[in-house]
């Protein structure tokens, strides 16, 4: 197997934007002094997640949900094989990762929406509680996600974190992306900027 | 009183969104404070001084009044985000000082920001005495 291009630019750029935004939102959540930074960081996470949903339908080959979202039986089966140290290699996301990804995207939208409603004073105190709850759940799933990345990297002797940077993973040449997705990355950045500006007003 | 009334109130508040009156809340802070300061009584005047005092720990948020204006009866403005803040006075907003968990949360958050530490029970009792003056 060779190293081929698997993750296009919007996937990689979006991923690291979400990581940075989530970390920043997490450390500033409790502080009024940093409230504006919190709102911008959280809105970035939310906007990128929303774009990623669309990209999961119309995006490049391995970014599509159809490429990596599988039923619970397959996800559990993959985890079992992972425990027995003989997981099959997937060029794109494995079935267990697929579930973590869907959960992370859903929680990013839920945290963002509830935070926005709190900020605009659209709900009662329960919205604020919901915001705290979603953010806490998301932190847990991020932890699970990191554990999965670590285990997967070890099992396949492949640095998955680096692959999320360069976009390149082991795979057959005919599975490679043919375009890096520069235009899509630009449109993602434009959308994110616009959405954040609107959300943080 | 030697029962830890405030923690109990808070627990009740957290469990059931239990509500109290500003007077009950002030009483529980007074009770807590009087265990350290025998004979402590909340004072609206001390509360007023505290409210306006420039702690200047944070250059953006030097005092409570930075966001809540000179008077708790007035509509405030968040010094960082510019969002409006409804008045703290229960005569203007009936739900103020009625939810122990919420009050504790904002005391913790705002005091840490403005004073660089949590407020004492005595400071909270004075603060409520001042903010509820005339109600
Ligand atoms: C994924 C993104 C986000 C995460 C992980 C996050 C996390 C948090 C956390 C941990 C808190 C502290 C809760 C507490 O202890 O009371 C908080 C508070 C807050 N967040 Fe977010 N947040 C996110 C997005 C947003 C967005 C998009 C907005 C607004 C547009 C927002 C607005 C707020 C506000 C206004 C508070 C203060 C709530 C209160 O206690 O009154 N957040 N957030
Ligand atoms: C902070 C919150 C995080 C969120 C919300 C998040 C979200 C996601 C999402 C949505 C994907 C799917 C990528 C796509 O197809 O678009 C993904 C994959 C991935 N993430 Fe994260 N992630 C987070 C943190 C991290 C961190 C801190 C690391 C590494 C240090 C990391 C490493 C990876 C890797 C390696 C993949 C690819 C997994 C695979 O090969 O299947 N993630 N993440």
Describe the structure.
The complex is a heterodimer of chains A (201) and B (135). With 201 residues, chain A is mainly alpha-helical. Chain A has 8 helices and 2 strands; from the N terminus they run E-H-H-H-H-H-H-H-E-H. Chain A has one domain: Up-down Bundle (Fumarate Reductase Cytochrome B subunit), CATH 1.20.950. A two-stranded antiparallel ribbon of chain A has the order 1-2. In chain A, helix 5 packs antiparallel against helix 6. Chain B has a single domain, classed as Cytochrome c-like domain (Cytochrome Bc1 Complex, Chain D, domain 2), CATH 1.10.760. Chain B has 6 helices and 2 strands. Chain B has a two-stranded antiparallel sheet. The two termini of chain B are 26 Å apart. At the A-B interface, helix 2 of A face helix 5 of B. The site of one protoporphyrin IX containing FE has 20 residues of chain A, from helix 1, helix 5, helix 6 and helix 7. One protoporphyrin IX containing FE binds next to helix 1, helix 2, helix 5 and helix 6 of chain A.
Keywords:
heterodimer, A: 201 residues, mainly alpha, two-stranded antiparallel ribbon, 71% helix, B: 135 residues, Cytochrome Bc1 Complex, Chain D, domain 2, 2 strands, 48% helix, 3% strand, binds protoporphyrin IX containing FE
